[in-house]
Fold this sequence. Notes:
Elements: H1 2-11, E1 18-20, E2 25-28, E3 31-32, E4 37-40, E5 43-47, H2 48-54, E6 58-62, E7 67-72, E8 75-80, E9 85-87, E10 91-93, E11 99-101, E12 104-108, H3 109-115, E13 119-123, E14 128-132
Parallel strand pairs: 2-14
Antiparallel strand pairs: 1-4, 2-3, 4-5, 5-12, 6-7, 7-8, 8-9, 9-10, 11-12, 13-14
Amino acid sequence: MLTLLVAVAVLQTGPKPILLERPATVIVNGTKVPGALMIRENRVQIQMRPIFEALGAFVQWFPENRKVVATKGDKEVSLIIGQNFAYKMKPHLLDYPPRIVNGRVMVPLRFVSETLGASVEWYRDTKIARVDLSSTTSGEPG
């Protein structure tokens, strides 16, 4: 029994994600995005559906293989829960994989935003991420 407790204690050490309900804010083109945020080692992950919809993307969830696919115009990004690779025409290494936290699919804010043509600025002091679609260089309207 003691061995089991020690093993559990060892497995629970290390950095843990922090699920924030609203101490941090994501704003896309001036509009606050609803949903949960997770900050882990200065990396922001956000609830899947609200960010993709705010970016004007069509989002699909495939529970059988735990895969998220978002499409906006000719841009597409695929992410698989727990994998450090996302796919946007070819594999792309992620700092942190998408994950499910409290039943919510969380995706990396900067990667998905930039993949879909937006720029991201993070203001650490105020915990605000500003996502701007108008600064895209793809020629698509914001």
